[in-house]
Amino acid sequence: MISGEPSWLPGTLTVARREIRDQLRDWRILAPIILLTLFFPVLMNFTANQAVQFVEQYGAEIIADRLIPFLLMVVGFFPISISLVIALESFAGERERLSLEPLLATPLTDGQLYFGKIIASMLAPLGAAYLGIFVYLAGLFWRLGWQPPVGLLVQVVLLTTAQSIVMVTGAVVISSQTTSVRAANLLASFIIVPVSQLIIGESLIMFWGRYGVLWWIVAALVLVAIVLIRMGLHLFNREQLLGRDFDDFDLKWVKNSFWTGFRGRAETLSGWYRELLGQTLPQSRGSILIMILALLVAYWVGFRAASDYVLPGDLFQADRLQAALGEELSSFGLLTARGWLWVAWNNIRALGLASLLGAFTFGVAAVVLLMTPVGIVGYFAGNFALAGGDSARILGGLVLPHGLLEIPAAILAGAAILQLGLAALSLPKGSSLGASWLEALGKWARLNLGLVLPLILLAAAIEVFITPRVAMALLAGGP
Amino acid sequence: MRGGAMIPLIETFELGKRFGELVAVDQVNLRVNPGEVLALLGPNGAGKTTTIRMLASILGPSHGWVRIVGLDTVAQASQVRRQVGMLTEHHGLYTRMKSMEYLAFFGEIYRLPTDLITQRALGLLDRFGLSEAVDLRLGAYSKGMRQKLAMARALLHDPTVLLLDEPTSAMDPESARLVRESIRGLRSGNRAIVVCTHNLYEAETLADRIAVIRKGKVVAHGSPEDLKREFLGNPIMELRVAGSLDGAVRLLPDGAVLRETGSNWLRFQSEDPQTVNPAVVRAMGMAGIEIVTLSEIGRSLEDVYLSVMQSENPN
Hints:
The complex is a heterodimer.
Chain A: H1 8-23, H2 27-56, H3 61-96, H4 100-104, H5 110-144, H6 150-175, H7 181-187, H8 189-208, H9 212-235, H10 238-243, H11 251-263, H12 269-283, H13 285-308, H14 318-331, H15 337-360, H16 364-386, H17 391-425, H18 433-465, H19 467-475
Helix pairs in contact in A: 1-5, 2-3, 2-5, 3-5, 3-6, 3-8, 5-6, 6-8, 6-9, 11-18, 12-18, 13-16, 13-17, 14-19, 15-16, 15-17, 15-18, 16-17, 17-18, 17-19
Chain B: E1 10-19, E2 22-28, E3 31-32, E4 37-41, H1 48-55, E5 63-68, E6 71-72, H2 77-83, E7 84-87, H3 99-109, H4 114-127, H5 143-155, E8 161-165, H6 173-186, E9 192-197, H7 200-206, E10 209-214, E11 217-222, H8 224-232, E12 236-241, E13 256-261, E14 265-270, H9 273-286, E15 291-296, H10 301-312
Helix pairs in contact in B: 3-4, 8-10
């Protein structure tokens, strides 16, 4: 017998080569790539020329200045959008056609198969994107003599590459949860929606002319790609691929997985609380620490921003603050049960929204959302200080009484959402994404129901019945 | 051989596999020596494919262990997979490729030299009667042709252990016979073959030993003859005589247990046919009864299989 374990790169490239050869024989992939590489850049070129000529008549050259780089990004993005389709086809399609098992029976490692397929999914669309960018730029140079700044060109190339990696690695995660291309295409919304939002954001940034921000987007995309690759490597393994039937919706399994996380081993309510305080809470200490740091950073950023965006000092005169507070008391129904319900419901809604956003962003969006009010408090405290007041006093009077409970509630809620996000990133060996996430969702519910909700209800009561009195008493002394 | 004992190419110890709450394979102990063919026989969902996937180091056991050519399938997974050729239940071919290109791809994965890949690929295509289809895309192949090419893929790197999951499923009788003959031809002193099947004829004609699997457990294990003896009792002999059977029944010697009689025939069971049968012939001859035939009644593996299944599932 003459055979050996394929060394890492040759084995990976063997897989990639076969996939690419297969793609190049499929007209459904080939036709759009050719169209988007050659025809689309020419169309964009024509659009740019027309736009430049049109806006020049009205002295609005800035629109053309912004439009040309924007179209450069679009020309790069369109071909790489095909990489998502190729990746879904490559991973989910191969499972559906049952052609994966013969590969799994070879000495190739899971990593070789994974990276071979990733490379194959990206190479043709990325090549087409680069070629498209070249065709577009060549046309612009020929007709308008326009050359892109090197920095911008590098940014667009990096953005295009990073977006392709994110889409492909995301597609692997999605494909690993399905056994059919149809199901994978349905789940692909989890990639398409965020990426389209990202493209809209990038477009706004480019029309705004804040090209520096694009570097941050590149960095963020690289981070997301690393996270997705890590997840993909965990999910794309022989055991997961052949060991489970993903497409069946098993309500009992969903309930059991959730219940395991929610109930734990507790038999009674007191046992449940003991487990919550003795196990769940200590397990979340890393996330709690991250949340504390995030809120401190938010306060600091808000406080510092006050010196850049100064509010008129007379807003912070004691009599005006007192008047404003009086107005609040009458309009929002403070010092009443209705006001308590309103505040509590508002906070619950905010945490619910943060959880929902966090569930799709590994917890990041939730943390950012929870940082916002703290940043605003910091900003007002900063302005209060600039107006000659004691910022500790505004904190003490307007925030601290209910904040003593509300801030820990926000920290715990944020930590729970982060834990939920981390569940998808650090899957225990042998567990599936679904089971791990549902169990984490159970723990999230346990933390929220057991601690966050009571804290919020209490904090709302203090905010409605005690804080206004403390604030009035403190403000009576002037800034 | 080491110290006179044969080293098995495949060995499992209390092998088990769970998927969540489902026990797919439970406490399976197997040993396949060089030159042996073992058939895993069982109904759909019995755990045959999961067992074979664990033997191929595609799935890891939840309990127990597997050694292939002395290598542990978990700790030395890649090395194990080098030693194993596997025909999967579904052929899983790439339909846009041609046969030579397909085999070359797998040859490359096993890092075979290009010349050797070409030589072996041509030889295997010829052996399976696929030489004339080299210019066709695999999408144009019939089911049987695809299965034969998948067999060629499994054999390309000349594996020491060959695992065949339903090798003749979806094949026409002629192709199935060709594949079965090929499997017989693959038997060699330094190779072990496991055939996973629910085709009883295939198991009986190909295998030296058969392991019947049901609900993840091996419920019967042995050579076809051993299994027949164990589950159907001693062999049944049929005696046909010229003329009437009158008086012949009482001539049966000790050790022959009468089972059935007809007008000119009788059937008896014996623990020791080698001794009892000549005694029967002698007794009949002495009584002047002319014997037309004395032969063993053929008992199929199907009878064994049904007996095993019924004994395991009395309801």
